[in-house]
Design brief:
It contains 9 helices and 14 strands. By secondary structure, it is of the alpha+beta class. Strands 3, 4, 5, 6, 11, 12 and 14 form a 7-stranded mixed beta sheet that branches. A 3-stranded antiparallel beta sheet has the order 9-8-13, with no helix packed on it. Strands 1-2 form a two-stranded antiparallel ribbon. A hairpin with a 4-residue loop joins strand 8 (194-199) and strand 9 (204-208). The N and C termini lie far apart (73 Å). The relative contact order is 0.13.
């Protein structure tokens, strides 16, 4: 149908073949096939020109619409390849979804007005298929090896509590002292029941985490710690403000509870989708800048 529309507008089979990048005989064969398949004469040929029949004129109008629609579809695909549009579905744990991700994605969303964000917030792991997730932000182990993991940051996990709680219950001096304290725990199946503490000299100590209070939300645990309900494991990078303002203080500051990788998970071919590619690049730049800024702040603080 595209060949026939091009033939009518070109005025000859030679010019039509040149426009389409095919031979003159190929154009003739396509027209002959149309007439044979539909059992109708579309044009009368002479040695130098052709004349459309009444059926050919009506058929040309339909062919032109098909050809124009195909061209428009191609242009839309080419445009979509460069400019992101549609719905971007991102899942993230509550700590990151509250402030970090909206801040990270804001520049992208302001520039691309046809891109819409749907942010799924929960500390349990989403099913990327059922939820149609484009990018999943996870902390800790990667749940599915079929996904591609993009490392964003490595967090230092620390113990913390409120000054009021420690004033009432006492300050733990050794890891064993935590057995006498109220511990706060994240009620998710990917959270271990024990942690390996590390100190600056490389020594290790096993800490069994038997929580008195549980929550499915890491943000709720942070709030519970601030409100004096117990000792919590938190990512240092995520509670910097609380530590600086004195709402939380380090518990057993000589130890860290380990490190947790923060990753963005995508499907293997997602880099071909503009909205995913640009969003992932934006998130990675944000985390890289935040790590650089944090390192600079620490250098100034220590006078190095």
């Amino acid at each position: 149908m595209v060949v026939f529309a091009t033939l009518v507008e070109a005025g000859s089979m030679r010019r039509a073949g040149s426009a389409l990048g095919i031979s003159t005989s190929a154009v003739s064969q396509q027209v002959a096939k149309l007439e044979r398949d539909f059992k109708v004469v579309l044009l009368h040929r002479t040695t130098r020109r052709f004349v459309l029949t009444e059926a050919g004129e009506a058929f040309y109008r339909d062919c032109r619409q098909v050809r124009d629609a195909a061209h428009a579809a191609r242009e839309r695909l080419l445009a979509a390849r460069e400019a992101p549009e549609g719905e971007l579905v991102v899942s993230a744990p509550s700590m990151l979804a509250e402030m970090t991700l909206p801040l990270a994605l804001a520049p992208l969303l302001r520039v691309y007005r046809r891109l819409n964000l749907r942010l799924l917030v929960a500390d349990e792991r989403f099913d990327l298929v059922d939820s149609k997730v484009d990018i999943a932000i996870v902390v800790g182990r990667v749940p599915d090896s079929t996904l591609v993991g993009h490392l964003l940051a490595t967090w230092q996990l620390i113990l913390c509590a409120s000054p009021a709680y420690l004033a009432e219950r006492g300050v733990p001096l050794e890891a064993d002292d935590l057995g006498e304290h109220d511990l706060l725990g994240l009620a998710q199946d990917y959270i271990p029941e024990s942690f390996t503490l590390e100190d600056a000299e490389g020594r290790e100590a096993l800490l069994m985490w038997r929580a008195r209070h549980l929550s499915t939300s890491q943000s709720a645990l942070r709030r519970m710690a601030i409100d004096g309900l117990g000792v919590s494991v938190q990512a240092r990078e995520e509670v910097d403000d609380e530590l600086r303002l004195g709402r939380l203080v380090r518990v057993l500051p000589q130890w860290i509870v380990g490190r947790a990788a923060v990753r963005a998970l995508t499907w293997s071919r997602s880099r071909e989708v503009p909205k995913v590619r640009l969003a992932l690049d934006t998130i990675r730049r944000f985390f890289a800048k935040r790590a650089t800024d944090a390192a600079s702040t620490m250098s100034v603080h220590h006078g190095t």
